[in-house]
Design goal:
There is one protein chain. The protein is 31% helix and 12% strand. The protein has 118 residues and is α+β, with helices and mostly antiparallel strands. The chain has a domain of 45 residues. Strands 1-2 form a two-stranded antiparallel ribbon. The termini are far apart.
């Protein structure tokens, strides 16, 4: 019975310590959580789509052209073809030639048998 008495004595202290550790872990996880924000992420075609990121990543996203905050009407779409202009290609300088075409090479024989050295 002596062992049971000691265990009954320490059991409430053990549970109290477990509860204190659980409260501490919960408080630290709540404190460590960062804020999630919505941005318009720039795509390769010039359009945007809305994504959610960690607020710590905002400077990197803004550095490559993302939009924050998201506009009232949502993220802009890709540019339309009517907004882009086509410029003619102007070549300046004398024309260049690559020279005469090279003559065709004769086919290599494929039925060469090894020679024996004797």
């Amino acid at each position: 019975m002596l062992k049971l008495d000691r265990m009954e004595k320490w059991l409430p202290l053990f549970f109290a310590m477990v509860i204190v550790v659980m409260i501490f872990c919960y408080a630290m996880s709540a404190f460590a959580q960062s804020t999630r924000i919505h941005i318009c992420h720039r795509l390769g075609n010039g359009g945007y789509n809305e994504i959610t990121i960690d607020d710590d990543a905002l400077p990197a996203h803004l550095a490559h052209g993302d939009i924050y905050p998201v506009p009232e009407g949502g993220c802009p779409g890709p540019p339309t073809s009517s907004t882009t202009t086509t410029q003619p290609i102007i070549v300046v300088g004398p024309p260049t030639t690559l020279g005469p075409p090279r003559p065709a090479q004769p086919p290599r024989p494929t039925n060469i048998s090894p020679q024996t050295v004797g």
